[in-house]
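Deviations from the work plan: none for this task. Representative record:
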Amino acid sequence: GQEGKMFPRKSAASYTDSSDDETSPRDKQQKNSKGSSDFCVKNIKQAEFGRREIEIAEQEMPALMALRKRAQGEKPLAGAKIVGCTHITAQTAVLMETLGALGAQCRWAACNIYSTLNEVAAALAESGFPVFAWKGESEDDFWWCIDRCVNVEGWQPNMILDDGGDLTHWIYKKYPNMFKKIKGIVEESVTGVHRLYQLSKAGKLCVPAMNVNDSVTKQKFDNLYCCRESILDGLKRTTDMMFGGKQVVVCGYGEVGKGCCAALKAMGSIVYVTEIDPICALQACMDGFRLVKLNEVIRQVDIVITCTGNKNVVTREHLDRMKNSCIVCNMGHSNTEIDVASLRTPELTWERVRSQVDHVIWPDGKRIVLLAEGRLLNLSCSTVPTFVLSITATTQALALIELYNAPEGRYKQDVYLLPKKMDEYVASLHLPTFDAHLTELTDEQAKYLGLNKNGPFKPNYYRCCSSSSFLLPRAWGTRAGRVEGTGFNPTGPLRRYQGVSG
Amino acid sequence: GQEGKMFPRKSAASYTDSSDDETSPRDKQQKNSKGSSDFCVKNIKQAEFGRREIEIAEQEMPALMALRKRAQGEKPLAGAKIVGCTHITAQTAVLMETLGALGAQCRWAACNIYSTLNEVAAALAESGFPVFAWKGESEDDFWWCIDRCVNVEGWQPNMILDDGGDLTHWIYKKYPNMFKKIKGIVEESVTGVHRLYQLSKAGKLCVPAMNVNDSVTKQKFDNLYCCRESILDGLKRTTDMMFGGKQVVVCGYGEVGKGCCAALKAMGSIVYVTEIDPICALQACMDGFRLVKLNEVIRQVDIVITCTGNKNVVTREHLDRMKNSCIVCNMGHSNTEIDVASLRTPELTWERVRSQVDHVIWPDGKRIVLLAEGRLLNLSCSTVPTFVLSITATTQALALIELYNAPEGRYKQDVYLLPKKMDEYVASLHLPTFDAHLTELTDEQAKYLGLNKNGPFKPNYYRCCSSSSFLLPRAWGTRAGRVEGTGFNPTGPLRRYQGVSG
Amino acid sequence: GQEGKMFPRKSAASYTDSSDDETSPRDKQQKNSKGSSDFCVKNIKQAEFGRREIEIAEQEMPALMALRKRAQGEKPLAGAKIVGCTHITAQTAVLMETLGALGAQCRWAACNIYSTLNEVAAALAESGFPVFAWKGESEDDFWWCIDRCVNVEGWQPNMILDDGGDLTHWIYKKYPNMFKKIKGIVEESVTGVHRLYQLSKAGKLCVPAMNVNDSVTKQKFDNLYCCRESILDGLKRTTDMMFGGKQVVVCGYGEVGKGCCAALKAMGSIVYVTEIDPICALQACMDGFRLVKLNEVIRQVDIVITCTGNKNVVTREHLDRMKNSCIVCNMGHSNTEIDVASLRTPELTWERVRSQVDHVIWPDGKRIVLLAEGRLLNLSCSTVPTFVLSITATTQALALIELYNAPEGRYKQDVYLLPKKMDEYVASLHLPTFDAHLTELTDEQAKYLGLNKNGPFKPNYYRCCSSSSFLLPRAWGTRAGRVEGTGFNPTGPLRRYQGVSG
Amino acid sequence: GQEGKMFPRKSAASYTDSSDDETSPRDKQQKNSKGSSDFCVKNIKQAEFGRREIEIAEQEMPALMALRKRAQGEKPLAGAKIVGCTHITAQTAVLMETLGALGAQCRWAACNIYSTLNEVAAALAESGFPVFAWKGESEDDFWWCIDRCVNVEGWQPNMILDDGGDLTHWIYKKYPNMFKKIKGIVEESVTGVHRLYQLSKAGKLCVPAMNVNDSVTKQKFDNLYCCRESILDGLKRTTDMMFGGKQVVVCGYGEVGKGCCAALKAMGSIVYVTEIDPICALQACMDGFRLVKLNEVIRQVDIVITCTGNKNVVTREHLDRMKNSCIVCNMGHSNTEIDVASLRTPELTWERVRSQVDHVIWPDGKRIVLLAEGRLLNLSCSTVPTFVLSITATTQALALIELYNAPEGRYKQDVYLLPKKMDEYVASLHLPTFDAHLTELTDEQAKYLGLNKNGPFKPNYYRCCSSSSFLLPRAWGTRAGRVEGTGFNPTGPLRRYQGVSG
């Protein structure tokens, strides 16, 4: 349910951003220390700052570093020419440099006009990556940057890594012939995946695409585990409130809702849940939450949190009935869940009390505390831990490897889920972080269970609770093949980590 | 993973079982108060005791009682002739009398030679159900009882409700022609479902079959929620141990393992987990459990619990290394997980200290405490709450209704999962127990989400965490149709419960 | 708040109790294998069964076993002649045999006419302890047994270990001169301690007395940790109910209430709390419980639990308003909390459905489920873990040692709490069970904190949360001296356990 | 253990602080709108900003607002002339204006040269309070401000409210005669209380003093409940780390340690505990934490947190052995717990990566992450919720009322704890925030328990877990009288809140 977690970490480092340099990067002449000018960033001189942030990120992205080590022997992306369009952050930089180490050539643009960390972009440009991105691009800049990535003499991409589908869209529109050489698309976002399914349905998808948004591991981390922490972080940073004893209603008991409820319950809040699906509702009951309709508790709660993916879950009528000082925020999807537009009426006064915090004041003096204007709290008001981004980035890297190396015919012109074995592999690459020791099946046990000792341990259509209550999955899984026969054997490095104990 | 939860509740009522009546029921002439003798039970005079147990069970099975109420208007099982073979307990009796109220005729045998509650069987016989079952049947008695259910003049079943597949097997073997009139089979157990899939694979399944074992609701309750409570209950009743501060290793982090770990952690135990699947392993890490190999902790733990579904997870070598007084038990599957056979060697002394509790004593005096001889702890040493059995029984009733009313052609000669909507309906029927109020979608919201307001809210292939680590699901879901067009509209009573609040 | 935890463990072993031997033990001529007949038990031949139970208990009472080991060198109770009056169970036997190993002579009677385990009494008699106790004594038997302990030719007690004050009372009444030689009284129960404070207040206490009921360690275990587990156990064994989703109100948020609330919340119940003390009430809020008056929730809850120590907390009016099937039980104090007497009216029908479980049925058919007739649930319907009893028994043993060895003048004719250092020592003796490694202060740190490296680490008047909401402590602590100068150095064995790690 | 929580909330409002106005406030001529110039603040024109912050704080300080309402009838501080020296924040302003509403005249200085919020000081000055404080005072300024509060013609204080003892010290030193008219001192901090006990011991304390630091309610909130939240907040804001799966060692299991452990366990961390006190150690075991020595786990943990109050708990030797990226922080006391000085050696490189975050880098590249240079994490890197400050401020107000109204002779020249009944009253004033409904004793119950229906419900020496492992309480409680006879009846407003329900 949580889209676009690859949002930039708000760096606390003392960036030199506040320069009074107002010249557009497009009008500047810049060269990196090796003399290349095949990039366009804010200020190449910020490279050193960016490099430090990348180095810090590397320490928390062990899986990509493990892939790099392995790549000293083989280069599964040798010959790959990847064009990418994602948020440009320290974590993306670690991904890009890993793809480079695996043999790929990369060209990169930003998928969001605000999210680029200029220092990181500079560091990438300095080390030779053609990067076209800066913070505060205009819409025209945005498309210009994308175009500079693909429209190059003597270089044509054969792989696409996209986040939101804009890059894919641009190539479809401007350079449809390019798809003849493209082996596949890897897409990260809900929106981008949706676009791909529509293309597929319309029979217009002309290369295989991998939906990495719906891998089990990524979903669990983006939704349950990450939100369990970011709900507390987001509320604390914006309001300094105390959780103990507070009455909270959480709308929706999918993965995001489950994470929010568990965290707040643990901190001593009293949590109510609303649901439309009786199965999720029964789970809420068994987990110890009163299942109510929003109307029943709206007058008494201190906090309202939406995690449904639905629209207008909190209406003006609800807002009118809330008690003074009630906090309202959205952890769900987009900005549709709270009917914020209904609050833009003359009788209500808006007061911006802090960044991301508005007091909306009723004529009688009652005020409600609206966070992030109803947009996603966790993206607006808290940070996404590098570890979560590491899982996303590793999944992207493996999807690129799989599509690039797949034998002819394994993937058709359709949208695929990451094969189960690959998903398990991503998980296994992150276990060493926790000094976690996986048990290996004996031959006898593998035979008893009818499993391969190296996995996959679950069938392709197994998705562990990954459907939050609003994400309607598509017809997946039936086509995704196994990993056999890939030159790149994913179980190698995994096993290396397992010899530690008993 | 947990098979056969429909095991009899150990009644604490003062049954008159210990009579010295050694005559076989088959040799007795018994009549109920209406003069019928179409049954065979231990002692028809025990009916009154059994009736009280049934009445108590009724209070905790609200969903079936709701179906009965609804049946005052329509009889969706009118004309159905159901032959059943299940454990015969107070909860089964509530199911049978519900099927009767819905219009069905029933004949019933026991699926297990020990599990029949004689008083309940007597009560059913007294109220006119042809029941053939008693506690302590011989194998010959077992098949004789089944045969008495199906081999009747002037009555031929058109529906089968089976638990384990023995009834289905008997009809296949003895009366294959009977299948011509049979509209479908509803099967409850893992074993029975396995047999059906094999038949299907071999092209020998000649009627549709419904696998109710793998419905989301049933799985969640049988595995996660029920085991979360029964692990504590089973350990306490057998050993009176204190949980606080104890070191425990739980083998397997599927649903059963998750339930065991959560409960013990909450009681102050220190819990370690072993896993083979990296995705489940990563979940264990994020839930705060050290992931280890069994060897690493075997010397230090106070309790070893298996929940893998695998075999020989605890070997003689492990048992040799455990510390004095270590408790060993199995929550997983069958009796294969602990290699109990390896303990039957001359140098070890077995001492039965309580029912279901053995001390196995090493030559040096070390003793380990083996519970239930390695069989399922929760079935052997704790009780299954009526509420869990209610979910199973309701699922069975709805599956019978669905198969019996399905229009020609909806179901082929294959094995089906319960349609998602039915699964949701079972859940919704149990919400009133918790005074839980479901939210209804507005028209606008339903349109936005692309959902029918009455569900299903998730696709058929959605299974929420239901795969414990060992249960390998089959190729399901692709064939299961929707419920539209059934005469029996399952959303009626559900909605009635929802008007309570705001 | 929890009185008298030293209740016998309900042994599951196959005792030979059900003999039809109706002869009073007082009329029997019995001799143990060494020819002694200075005892009076049910049947000396049951000694072997009792010995096995004692051996099992020894394994879970490591602290007493550690004291025994230590006693191989010195005998701090050499010369002590202890007369005791407690429940006679396997755990008491371990205590008695430990006192013997420490040099004491003992004579023992039971403090309760029902609680004696005959086999254990036989085992003690067989190994030479003059024990006078059996299950099912008459009141006359009860006092006869006590008298046989103290009224002996050529033997006069110099220490008293009492549980309830009956033994002390008997000596005061019958043999007041005996107090001239008595060095002190150790009393375990709330009632007995209350009697001693009254004696003290009246100026009639003629020897020092040690109140071991109020030691921090004992209180924490008897109340918080033990009740956290026994509330679940007691409810499950009596009702087989499922905890998940149930609404529960807990009356009283002292230590017992805190334990009950924590356990039920962890199992998925929704818990409400009532309190009279605003400080405890605020704690309940911060721990995530709705603080209500009983009236507010009485119609909706599934379970009512009292832990207040107060009287008539649940009145007939409350009982009249409960919903059908509501469970009512008492974890608090005595049997006053629920007004059970008010249910003994003609219009209500009582139905005993299981041992300790009554259905009380209203004219309209509503039934409430009353457990243990309002007496303490945890004593009536669950077992007390040996580990908890071990803490009590160790505290008693150390109190005897302290009083017996105290230099002239340290203790006056007053009631004392166990010195803090002794309390800490009891705790430290139980740490090895958990393989727990205590950190030792460096000299520099001890100096910085102004503490002795061996403790006490808290002042004498420090009581960690030990006051449950109803137990009004007395004027303690101001007189209790330190342990310096005792021949028996309690820090010895403690430190021995601490060298294990770093 | 946590000293000085009254630290200023870091306001996120857009203060106009960054003015380039470098003139010292002492050199400015300022008047408020009523023409008064009896104050000295940074800039009186900032009053409006400050007023808004005060109004927001008022909404979260219901207890003080309740006192104000009550004061419309009676003025328990009529005639009181209070001189105060505390942090000057929005919450302090609410306290000061409450004291004013209760009838007192106040003059105020800051207890810390950095902590004054200039806008709040301006708002207070604007509304007529003689305030002498600004952010960034020199030491000379500091004492000058204090002197301006006390050294006034025609006005002499009769009450002191101090935080740290500097104000008290100044009066002792400069104006000892002033004490003749002073009725009492209320002191908030550990340090200030310590100084008072020393004065008392030396026989130099010439007025009664009230130690409000050690009230049960304040302690519980400052330590357990506040730290449970601030440990997560502090770690997240500084490092953006993910808690799930992390290994953490918490040194010390007093109230602060208990709060940290509970929070991190709930977020999925694996927590180890070190302790010196066997009773706290046993609690850690029962709460499910492995009790270790620091050495045993120092190589494997991801986070080290100190909460002991001791010194050099984390030594250079420990720091040398930590793994790369290990985070080290202090939640305990002062800055002694981590031996930060030992890290100031030439071979180690310090790198400031963010505010309050240093990387200390070993020659081999290993870096540890040191937060707040070993000072208190929760004060340096997170905010203190207004609700916690509300409890402190209410306690201070009631202590002033009690001392000011106490009849002659109730308090001697000594240090007193807040009477139990007052402490309960503070708690009760905060219950309405949680819509919490206290139960009232019936006459019969009060008689049974031997309690007054209005409390106190616990004896004066009852302190619920308030002793964290390092805070050694003083000789309290024996002298503190009851509240009877005060003109101001504290139970009035409390009871008013209780009529809401049943």
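Confidence is low (pLDDT under 50) at residues 1-20, 461-502 of chain A.
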